[in-house]
Design the sequence.
């Protein structure tokens, strides 16, 4: 795991929420110094701490640890995901089927 990238992603997610290191540290019950060390890649968070960070920052763990930075996901896709999560599985299938048809019509031969 790239701990420098993890730290960078945590820092970006924190800043996108206009949260200070002190506020984040308080939320997950660690020191501000520890948050700083994680963000700098000099300390490795435990799985429990990583989970608390993900919950506090409202971001998936895999987004934090992957090379794809949190800010790389377009807001409209995040919003669609949020809306779909509020639907039943039957409703999600219905929306997915409609979306698939719309994309095929919009993209046409580009999909092939």
Sequence:
């Amino acid at each position: 795991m790239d701990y420098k990238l993890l730290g960078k992603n945590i820092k970006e997610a924190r800043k996108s929420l206009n949260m200070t290191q002190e506020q984040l540290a308080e939320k997950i019950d660690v020191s501000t110094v520890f948050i700083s060390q994680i963000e700098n890649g000099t300390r490795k968070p435990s799985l429990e701490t990583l989970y608390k960070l993900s919950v506090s920052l409202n971001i998936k763990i895999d987004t934090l640890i992957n090379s794809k930075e949190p800010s790389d996901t377009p807001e409209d896709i995040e919003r669609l995901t949020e809306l779909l999560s509020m639907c039943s599985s039957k409703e999600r299938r219905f929306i997915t089927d409609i979306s698939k048809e719309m994309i095929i019509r919009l993209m046409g031969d580009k999909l092939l």
